[in-house]
Structure formats: C-alpha cells, structure tokens
Write a structure and sequence with these properties.
Organism: Rhodococcus chondri
Mean pLDDT: 85
Function: Na(+)/H(+) antiporter that extrudes sodium in exchange for external protons.
Keywords: Antiport, Cell membrane, Ion transport, Membrane, Sodium, Sodium transport, Transmembrane, Transmembrane helix, Transport
Protein name: Na(+)/H(+) antiporter NhaA
Structural class: mainly alpha
Shape: globular
Low-confidence stretches: 1-6, 259-266
Pfam family, one: Na_H_antiport_1
Oligomer: single chain
C-alpha cells in the first residue's frame, strides 16, 4: 500500500523564485545576526566591569506615560515592544510560506513542521527530567530551551556553510520560523497569569479594522500604524504577552496580489511589501536592542560560573539546547522520512540534517524572553537562566560550526552544480 508521500523527496532544491527569496532573507538575517552578537557581547562585557551598576540602571530606567500603565523599564520596552515587530515579521514570513511559498505543498511542509515540533518537545523533556525533583518553581522554565534564534543561527550558517545546498538553508529558516510561532503560542498559553478578557475582547476591534484595511490593500501608514499600536496596547493590557499581537497582525496581511491588479507587473503582494520594509528594522534594530538589554548578566568570575552550574535549571537549559534540539529535530525528521516512505534528496545525508539541527540549539532571543517570564521576581535564577542560555548557545554554535565546516567541503560539488548557469540567463540550470 502506498501513501501520498510514497515518492516524496525530502529537502529537494524547490523552485527558483523561492530560492531567490530565501537567499535574500538569509542575507538580511545574517547582518542582523552579526549585530545581535555585537550587542550581546557589549552587554555581557559591560555587566562584568566595575561600571555594571550603570548598565543595570539603564535597563531599569523607566519611560512612557504612567496614566496608560506604560511607564515601563527600557528592558521591558525592548521585550514587549521591539520584539512585537520581530514577531510581526515572523507572522508575515510564516503566512507567505504556506500561502505562496514552496510549503503550500503539504508534502514539503511536513518535514520542517514536524522537525520544529520535535525540536521543541525533546528539549522540554530533557529540561523536565533534569529538574523533576528540584522544586522551588524550577519547572516553570520548561520552555526556555525550546526556541531557535533565526538571526544568530543564520549568521553562523552563512559564514561556515557557504557551499551547503539551498534546501538545507531553507529547511533551517522555515523550521526556525515555525519554531518561533510555536514559542509565541507557548508564551500566550503557559506564561499568561492574569488574563483580562475585556481588554482582550477590545483588542479584536483594532485588529479587525487593521485586517479589513490590509485586505483592501491600504498601505497608508497614518492609518495602519495607529491600529497596530492600539492592538498592541490592548493585548499588553490584557495580560497576554504583547508579542502575540505582532504575530496576529502579521497573519492578517494578504500574501497574494489582488485580482484587480494581478499579473506579473503588479508588484509584490502586501505581505512581501511590509516584510521588505520591516525586516531590516527587525533584524538590525529590534532584535539587537533586545539582546543588549537581555544578555547583560554579572557572572562573578569562575566561582560565579561554577555556582551557576550547580543550579539544575541552568544545566537543564544547556542540555536541552545542545542535546535535546539535535535529537528532537533529527529524530522527528528521520521518523517523518520513514513514516512517509520518503528519502533525502540526492547528495544529502542524515549527518547534514544533524549538522543543521545543531544550529537549532542556538536559542538566544526567544529563550531569554521566556526565561524572563518564567522566573519573573527571582533575580538570582533569572541570572542563571541567562548564563545557561548563553552557555548552551555557544556550545551548540561551536559544535554546529565544526559539523558544518566538515559537510561544507563535501558539498562543494553539489553547490557548483546547483549554481551552474550555462545559458547565462541568470537562472541556474537546475531550476529550469
């Protein structure tokens, strides 16, 4: 008996338009990843100098109108405000993938979706097993090692994986986007304590008006931005983390061109238009600024680092990111192939999937966000979370770099074949 997946090939190159788009996205995220690393390093260095008090004072400096309950510390503005822009872009990207991208084909979508789910379940289980008997609210942080940082992971992939097949890069990008959607769902469901249904209901009004406007292809900033800000404010006041508003707003934006103005010369769809405008800000400003305010932790030298490793929460985070991610992503991908009777594309091996899965252990941005929510009011454990996330991320990044460098040399021939353009029409022959 055969299935709809009987002859499916996993991680095939895909279409040329999608490859071009993914390449452009990866280029922008690579720049953002470099800025993220610089911002995080600056914060970490500053927080471990004699002037660390100035850093922490800056993090806690409050701005905003108190009458609207928005007199918030700068660190909260970065987490609740700037990351909402990041998740808006995530919503746009995910919707575009499933409406107009190669992943509108269920058979192509199955692998990154199942891999993302596996890449969240396995690290969570690793964390829970390690902290099962810890007590003192340690299990609140079960979701910390489940997230993958797009910008950080893509930056490393771009530097050390220049000859890897495009399909592997697309796999990582799509997996990370789905991962972020699942992460924000986890935040909304499991890290919302005091839910105000009045504010939540009111948030639906500007959200619906925003959706109506974008469906009518209205691009006027003076209308869309106030509606988006009002949606964000009402969601923030409802008790749900404000980044959820970003994803919801992103999902309302139409991906396809309107029927009235369709055709090859009609220009990009509205989702692509917004993504083109906002991705540089998201990758170049929003995420690095958040990283600057989130990554600064006073380690306290070798003794302080050793003390952190005595906390099972930090150990659970490190093990979840380094071991749980690679086991979850690779394991579910392998089971998907077996269940669907599919095989990897020509030239690819499971070691390639495992090498990319190691990048999934780079859980910087969203992991730090979840850590702040999980242990709010516990400064010591919050510091341990940051050190655990940084340590796990660095270990995963180093292991991924080694594995990808080895596989990169092996894939040089495939790369040259995929990019061969004998007729010089700007489109590699493999996509024609």
């Amino acid at each position: 008996m055969t299935t709809p997946f009987s002859r499916q090939t996993l991680l095939s190159p895909g279409s040329w338009p999608e490859v071009k788009r993914v390449t452009e996205v990866l280029r922008k995220e690579t720049v953002g990843g470099v800025l993220l690393l610089v911002a995080a390093a600056l914060a970490l260095i500053w927080a471990n100098t004699p002037w660390s008090d100035a850093y922490h004072a800056l993090r806690e400096f409050k701005v905003g109108p108190a009458s609207l309950h928005l007199d918030l510390p700068l660190s909260v503005w970065a987490a609740d405000g700037l990351l909402a822009v990041f998740f808006f872009v995530v919503g746009l990207e995910l919707k575009r993938e499933f409406v107009a991208g190669d992943l509108r084909d269920l058979r192509r979508a199955a692998l990154p979706i199942t891999a993302a789910v596996g890449g969240m379940v396995a690290p969570a289980l690793v964390f829970v097993v390690i902290n099962l008997r810890t007590g003192d609210g340690a299990l609140n942080g079960w979701a910390i090692p489940t997230a993958t940082d797009i910008a950080f992971a893509v930056a490393i992939l771009a530097v050390v994986g220049s000859h890897l097949p495009v399909a592997l890069r697309t796999f990582l990008l799509t997996l990370a986007v789905v991962d972020d959607l699942l992460a924000v769902t986890v935040i909304a469901v499991f890290y919302t304590e005091d839910l105000d249904f009045v504010y939540l209901g009111l948030a639906l009004i500007p959200l619906a008006l925003f959706a109506f406007a974008v469906q009518k292809r209205i691009r006027s900033w003076w209308l869309l931005i106030p509606l988006a800000l009002l949606t964000w404010y009402l969601v923030h006041e409802s008790g749900v983390h404000a980044t959820v508003a970003g994803v919801l707003l992103g999902f309302t934006v139409p991906v396809l061109r309107s029927a009235a103005t369709g055709g090859p010369d009609a220009g990009p769809g509205l989702a692509e238009h917004f993504e083109h405008r906002l991705r540089p800000f998201s990758a170049g400003v929003a995420v690095p600024v958040f990283a600057f305010f989130a990554a600064g932790v006073t380690i306290g030298g070798i003794s302080g680092f050793t003390a952190t490793l005595n906390d099972s929460v930090a150990i659970g985070i490190i093990a979840g990111l380094v071991v749980g991610k690679v086991v979850g992503i690779t394991g579910t991908s392998f089971l998907t192939a077996k269940f669907t009777r599919a095989s990897l594309a020509e030239g690819l091996r499971w070691i390639d999937v495992a090498a990319v899965a190691l990048l999934g252990g780079i859980g910087f941005t969203v992991s730090l966000l979840i850590g702040e929510l999980a242990y709010a009011g516990d400064p010591l454990r919050s510091d341990h979370v940051k050190i655990g996330v940084l340590t796990g991320t660095i270990i995963a990044a180093l292991l991924a770099t080694i594995a990808l460098r080895i596989r990169n040399r092996a894939h040089r021939t495939i790369y040259e074949r995929e990019n061969r353009d004998d007729d010089h029409d700007g489109i590699p022959d493999i996509y024609q």
